[in-house]
Amino acid sequence: MTTAKRRVEKLESGLTPKQAILLWLQEAHAFSGIEEYVRHLKTQPDSAAPLHKLTNQVEEDVRKTLKGRPKEEIDRAVRQAYKDVFFLFFLHQRVNDKLITEQRYHSSQAMLLASKLSSLMRERDLDRQMRWNRIRVEMQMPYPLDAETAATVEAAKQNYVLTWEAIEENDDIGQWLKDSLVAKGKTLLPDGAQSMKSETKVSYTEVPTKDDVRELFRDAESFQKFLDGEDFSYGLADVTDAEYDAHYEAIVSAVKSVTQQGLVVELPTVPHPFLSEAPLVDGDWIDRYTVELTEWGARIGEK
Length: 303
Hints:
Low-confidence stretches: 3-12
Radius of gyration: 39 Å
Strand content: under 5%
Distance between the termini: 99 Å
Strand order of the largest sheet: 1-2
Number of strands: 2
């Protein structure tokens, strides 16, 4: 037996209750789990059982510390050491039991929430599919209109205006510009790269590694500006925000120079959705029947 091993065994033979519990926890945590620890204990003699071993250790410590004192005093101190080590042992057990119980509760709650979230996502997907089915039916199935309404709809179709607000809201020009830049060889950042700036893990897409995204930038400084949110916020690794904005403004200016100025008036009470944004021609109404529909829609809404 080596000197170091003998020293360790000597230290373990006499320990205070707190020291004995800490040493036991250190030994137990060396195993991968409670099952492996229990299987190990089954192969050991009874003296290796936690409570048996702990009481022997604290008793040895008391008897060494009080050597030469009256037997009654030593026995009383041994009983107190037993109580202390029992208290610490069962305190550890109760705390573990409480934590395990709470963990099970929170796990079940997490599973319930995940189930509800999955159900909501399925409902959302079903709602989108139903909406798309409705649009397809409306596009493919003729809808009977009286002569006046049909004439109004036809006039609105001929003078239809797509507002700049709608274009900017849908970011149509931004998508055109991004597609054009990528076609010219610019580098598009992968999906999920934007979440790296806030270091927030998203569940619906795979987040690339920082090394993968770093390789797309021309230098470390540009990559750091992207992470800090100072530049490269349009999803391209080699197009700065200033360059992108300049291209965007140029496209908007060019499109406006070749298009006619059109105005629309929002009429939310029109029963027909297509006529709720009525285009104006030369500052006049397309058809006064649209106004009649607006008034009728408002009266129906009131009732």
